[in-house]
Amino acid sequence: MIIVKPAHFVAVPLAMWGHLRPLLHLSLNLLSLHPHLHLTILVTPSTAPRVESELKSTSFAHIYTKTPSASGTSTPISETGPATVTHHTTLAEQQHEDKAIVDRFQIITCISPEFPLPDEWTPETMAQEGIDYARTLPSFIKALMSREYRVDGTINKFEDIPLSFMIYNASKLSSRMS
Question: Is the pTM of this model over 0.85?
Fold first, then answer.
């Protein structure tokens, strides 16, 4: 019997919607394909409302639906060769799989207490937010890697699942134009 352990990954997008949105879609597709996968996405305060809005769109309706139960069923692992290898799903394994995608997903807004949230987002305040985000990311990642229960006031839903990997998306701007 193959036992699949829960895995936890963190997505760290650049603090801009054009970087965050594709990474969000990729991450949710990974959660759709892998029922033992759990995701934490680290966002800035200016992008958090857009993420929440995107998750409520009709294209993500499937993330709120639990997977159908198939306790005790047999699933072929390999259909090649003379004998087909079969994985028998136990009740305990199926209970891990009987979660909606949204139950395996958490958003953590990364900002330092020193950063004053503006009443209005301007290019200047967003630039300052990006700098603050870059400075605070290491402490948030360290807290997740240490499996802390609270990450700067936010409850870590996956404290019992060790961090398996991280997807980090960034862009480097060249100081020299070609």
Answer: no
